[in-house]
Specification:
This protein is mostly helical and 211 residues long. 89% of the residues lie in helices and 0% in strands. The chain is built from five helices and no strands.
């Protein structure tokens, strides 16, 4: 594991030197980038192997070995990000050079049609803005009317709710009165039946007494 670690660490140092050559533009840039990518791939492969060897290390030495492996992984990710940034920088530089060359090689010819002020377009643009403002005003007016309508409906609903509550209170009072009347009618019925029974008994008593 130590041998593989030192080999990987040496690859990282060589990759960093390749980055210095890349910044100095010494040689073919694309070949240097390809060489850097190949070294980064080798570093990543070695890190995967070190992860496997890590479990074969004695337990007391494992934390230190894991820390060194993690450092190699961090360096590999850093190198990969630096390579991507370098490629993007080169692409932007090449695009700028290409655009500059196209601009220098372009031939300009006078074109009266392009220098003519298009008044009709300006008027059309202004009319479009006015129509847009008018449409916004109409939308605001419609919204105000809808809001007033909702307020009117709210007042109407509040009045209807008040009338319903009054009717409910009135019906509640009427129901109470009807219950009292029904109760009184029941009591009168019992009194009538009791009076009839007493009268019949008195008549029977008189008939039996005088006969």
């Amino acid at each position: 594991m130590d041998t593989l670690y030192h080999q990987t660490n040496k690859l990282i140092q060589q990759t960093q030197q390749s980055f210095q050559a890349l910044e100095q533009n010494s040689g073919n840039v694309q070949e240097i980038e390809a060489d850097i990518q190949e070294k980064i791939n080798a570093i990543t492969s070695n890190c995967e192997k070190l992860d496997v060897y890590l479990y074969k290390v004695p337990f007391d030495q494992r934390p230190n070995a894991k820390m060194r492996c993690d450092q190699l992984k961090y360096d590999a990710r850093h190198l990969q990000a630096a390579l991507v940034a370098s490629r993007q920088k080169r692409a932007r530089r090449e695009a700028a050079i290409s655009e500059r060359e196209q601009l220098l090689n372009r031939r300009f010819a006078p074109n009266p049609d392009l220098t003519t002020i298009n008044i009709d377009y300006a008027l059309q643009h202004q009319n479009s803005l006015q129509n847009s403002n008018r449409g916004v005003d109409e939308m605001l007016h419609t919204g105000v009317n809808a809001l007033e309508s909702l307020r009117s409906q709210r007042l109407t609903l509040k009045g209807a709710h008040r009338r319903i509550m009054d009717m409910a209170n009135t019906l509640g009072l009427s129901n109470h009165t009807m219950r009292l009347i029904e109760k009184r009618a029941g009591e009168d019925k019992y009194i009538l039946m009791l009076g009839i029974v007493i009268t019949v008994l008195v008549i029977i008593f008189i008939i039996v007494y005088f006969t």
